[in-house]
Each structure stands twice: as structure tokens, then as C-alpha cells.
Amino acid sequence: MNSSETPFWVRKPLAQLTPSEWESLCDGCAKCCLHRFEDEETREIQFTNVCCRYLDQSDCRCSDYPNRSRNVPECVTITLAVLEDPYWLPESCAYRLLAEGKPLPHWHPLVSGDPDSVVQSGNSVGGRVISELEADDLEYHIIDWIS
């Protein structure tokens, strides 16, 4: 495989990606849109099945992506600085995987060529979450199906 055939995410370091390449790394699983708990001592993350109110659950995308940080101040924009210690991101997150020097999974749309492969592989939160507007106490919503 010559360099023109090598996918950009293999060929280029994260710091050299164009904005469109950077955005295409998001597989649309929406796991990062879930509320979570962190043990401050162990840094263990526990995810809930409660998503941000702006998550469009039909397509697992933010319904107001350009304004997400203004709408939800705790919404973290994935940057190179964030990826210096991405422990809190889901283990299957493309940004985390690449930052850790790991390959993208076979179901990632950039690898499979199919935008539905995230859903087909069971890696999407679609159909498995509730909005924060519907949730009661978050500790009753802890899940163990996120990786």
C-alpha cells in the first residue's frame, strides 16, 4: 500500500489532521454524550444510560452541535490537549484509540465504509438511553454495557 492509499488516520498524526478529517473520526456512537460518574481516587468511570438533552437519539448526533459548549458548559470538545489523558473517554472512542496508538475498530465508518456499522455492531447508544429531562437520580441509571 503506498502512502496515497494509506488512510489519513494511519498516515497523519492527530495534530496534522484537517478540521474535516478530525470531525470524521467521530463514529457517532454518542457514548461521550452520556452522564457519568468518576471515582476521584481511582479515576474509574461509570457511565449511565442518561444522555444530554441535546442528543438526537434517532441519529446519535448533537441537535445543536455548533452551540454545544454554550448550551452545556460541561460538554467537552475533544482537542489535542484533552487527548493527552483520555482515560475518561470510552475505550472504543476513535480519538482515544488513535491518541493511544491503537487502530480503529473494524466497525468504525472510516474503516467499514458504512455509516450504519456503528449501530449494526452494537456500539451506538441509540435506542438504549433516556434524556436527562426524563431521568431521576443518576445513580439509579449506572450501566455496564459501555466499553
From TrEMBL:
InterPro entries: Puta_zinc/iron-chelating_dom, UCP006173. Belongs to the UPF0260 family. This is UPF0260 protein AAY24_16050.
